[in-house]
Amino acid sequence: DPVAYYEDYLKNLYKVSVVMPIHNASKYLRQTLETVCGQSLREIEIILVENGSTDNTMDIINEFAVKDPRIMGISIGKSNPGHARNVGISMARGRYLQFLDADDHFEVNLLQDAYYRAYDSATDILLFGMKEKLPNGEVHVVHNPLLTNGGRMSGEEISLDEVTPYLYDKLF
């Protein structure tokens, strides 16, 4: 089947699809995109879904898309982040999916480490920690309680109280 072959080819080409809903993010978007484009895992696609910005966010998206062919930018008009994420999901072709907000940053090896850990263990969802910069400049480490186990768990074993409510500290 040629369609199945092509879909499998894309999953090998793009190990991770990074989906970012973006709204009026011109102040910090460049720095965020630098951390995503600079990932040590090169086999990624970056899906930027702009939803009704009134600043020059779309100009920045286009600027980066010209420089990096892994970037796909789309403008969907005024919408909410959930809808923008769903549009990004529908465009994603990678084996795994990673969400990122426009004001967040990745450490340089994050996607590589997460991908190989998830892929090697055939994990559906990989949880990892994050660092949060507080308004006073202090950095707070947010640990995911499930990470202390270090092993695999099934859905029945996971309590919602143990999982952070964020999307960006998980690889799907």
TrEMBL record:
UniProt-recorded Gene Ontology molecular function terms: hexosyltransferase activity
Keywords, sorted A to Z: Transferase
Pfam families reported in the protein's UniProt record: Glycos_transf_2
Domain Glycosyltransferase 2-like intervals: 17-128
PANTHER family membership: GLYCOSYLTRANSFERASE, UDP-GLCNAC:BETAGAL BETA-1,3-N-ACETYLGLUCOSAMINYLTRANSFERASE-LIKE PROTEIN 1
Name of the protein described by the UniProt record: Glycosyltransferase
Origin species: Enterococcus gallinarum
Phylogenetic placement of the source organism: Bacteria, Bacillati, Bacillota, Bacilli, Lactobacillales
